[in-house]
Design brief:
The chain is mainly β. The chain is built from 1 helix and 14 strands, in the order αββββββββββββββ.
């Protein structure tokens, strides 16, 4: 576990789940996705949006929202493996990121990335939000790839997400399963009062 993520978890945001200790199997080719909902994680479920798979290079999702495209309360991310068991190319390095906007296309925020997997990943900093950093309606994720630097590598990874609100603070961290466990979605991530967070922090944990 990287120092960036250890510090985050030691701050009391979430508990640690260690990577599988005996997994030396090749990792799956994957894409990332995001889904949002409303009603304190109970209603207005939006359509999940996904990038292309990592072996195809850099890509982005469409903008995702809850069903009425207004002030979602919760989000989750996906580490989605390739159908049919395709494997991640051994020379692929990657990082993930995102941005947010209002549903009329205004207040578009900056694209914010994690560090590269070969550098240990970590959280997006600052949080993903729109330009005024207040209650975005829609979110877009990015999967950026490059060749692995000489001598670099990683044996496993997973993603995490948590909501942040200026008045309420940070919500609980939600993790996807590890890539070696064939990935999957994270739990739903609300802010502490489960209402209109100002943005989300995404993260990449690498071992």
């Amino acid at each position: 576990m990287t120092g960036k993520i250890a510090a985050l978890l030691m701050a009391g945001v979430a508990a640690v789940t260690l990577a599988p200790s005996a997994s030396a199997a090749p990792l799956p080719n994957f894409r990332i996705g995001i889904q949002l909902n409303d009603g304190g994680c109970r209603t207005e479920f939006g359509t999940p949006q996904f990038t292309k798979f990592a072996n195809f290079g850099t890509s982005a999702t469409l903008f995702a929202s809850d069903l009425n495209r207004f002030d979602p309360d919760c989000a989750r991310i996906f580490l989605d493996p390739a159908f049919g068991g395709g494997l991640l190319n051994s020379n692929v390095d990657f990082r993930i990121g995102g941005r947010a906007r209002e549903n009329n296309g205004s207040e578009v925020g900056p694209v914010v990335f994690t560090d590269w997997a070969s550098a240990g990943g970590g959280p997006t900093d600052p949080m993903i939000s729109d330009a005024n950093r207040f209650d975005p309606d829609e979110y877009q994720l990015f999967l950026e790839t490059r060749p692995l630097p000489p001598g670099a590598g990683f044996s496993d990874f997973r993603f995490f997400i948590f909501a942040r609100d200026a008045g309420e603070g940070d919500g609980p961290v939600q993790f996807t399963p590890w890539a070696s466990q064939n990935g999957g979605p994270s739990g739903w991530a609300p802010d502490p009062n489960k209402f209109d967070p100002d943005g989300y922090v995404l993260g990449l944990e690498v071992v």
